[in-house]
Amino acid sequence: MEQLQDKPTVAIFVPCFIDQLYPQTAFNMVKVLEKVGCKVVYNAEQTCCGQPAFNAGFRDEAKAVCTKFVNDFKNAEVVVAPSASCIGFIKNYYPALFDNSSLHNEVKELQKKVYEFTDFLVNVLNVTDVGASFNAKATYHDSCAALRECKLKKEPRILLEHVAGLELVEMADVETCCGFGGTFAVKFEPISIGMGDQKANNAAATGAECIISTDMSCLMHIDGVIKNKQLSLQTYHIADILASGW
């Protein structure tokens, strides 16, 4: 991806579940972005990217929410979110949703400037070390959205390898889905739980103390399994790790 010569003004998008359940992750993302020299702005009118309604089959309702997102961020220089799930949805599904519409061109432009947090740090800013430290043995979970929709594999690992005190170990079947999938976890609960159980077992088998990912939605699901199985594992968004120790 093209690297920006000057640090851009970053408009942050805070996903629904992070806003409601894990707000500290959003603050930590801001903390890291500001440390690497970005000016961060927040549009208080923002709501949702539209993915939940879209995945549930409510296309018209989703388009209304997505239209608001486009209008909220169309004038932003760069949009960064701590969620590959939301960014993957915007990049991969907005074009079809707005094809041959009055917002077609705005969506094409928006696609070029929306980034998942680790993608933005590594591929745009060329940042690999933010000066973080976190003393723990950890394993990393590739979310489906990061791996398959945003094509991110090495970026989060590069950042974590530069965290002082962090030992990163890979779990078995690391690219296998954790079973969350948004509405999938509700519609296909037994399958979802089984997949989450497998992911938690694979993570525990590494001897890691914590699981790290780009997506709190996955971690929320995995954490539920961990608590149910009473495993000694903690879950952390990568922004929380990168904001530690300084």
Explain what you see.
This protein is an alpha/beta fold. It has 2 domains: 9-123, 3-Layer(aba) Sandwich (Rossmann fold); 130-242, Rossmann fold (3-Layer(aba) Sandwich). It is 50% helix and 15% strand. It has helices spanning 16-21, 23-35, 51-55, 59-73, 84-97, 104-111, 117-124, 144-149, 154-161, 184-187, 189-205, 216-229, 238-242; strands spanning 9-12, 39-41, 78-81, 114-116, 133-140, 164-169, 210-213, 234-237. The strands form 2 sheets. Strands 2-1-3-4 form a 4-stranded parallel sheet, with helices on both faces. Strands 6-5-7-8 form a 4-stranded parallel sheet, sandwiched between helices.
Main sheet record: 4 strands, parallel
Shape label? globular
Number of beta strands: 8
Residue fraction in strands:
5-15%
Uncertain regions: pLDDT < 50 for 5+ in a row? none
Q: Number of DSSP helices?
A: 13
CATH fold topology of the largest domain: Rossmann fold
SSE topology string: EHHEHHEHHEHEHHEHHEHEH
User: Strand order within the widest sheet?
Assistant: 2-1-3-4
Q: Calculate Rg over CA atoms.
A: 18 Å
What is the averaged pLDDT score?
94
CATH classification class of the largest domain: Alpha Beta
Q: Oligomeric form of this entry?
A: single chain
Total number of domains: 2
Structural class: alpha/beta
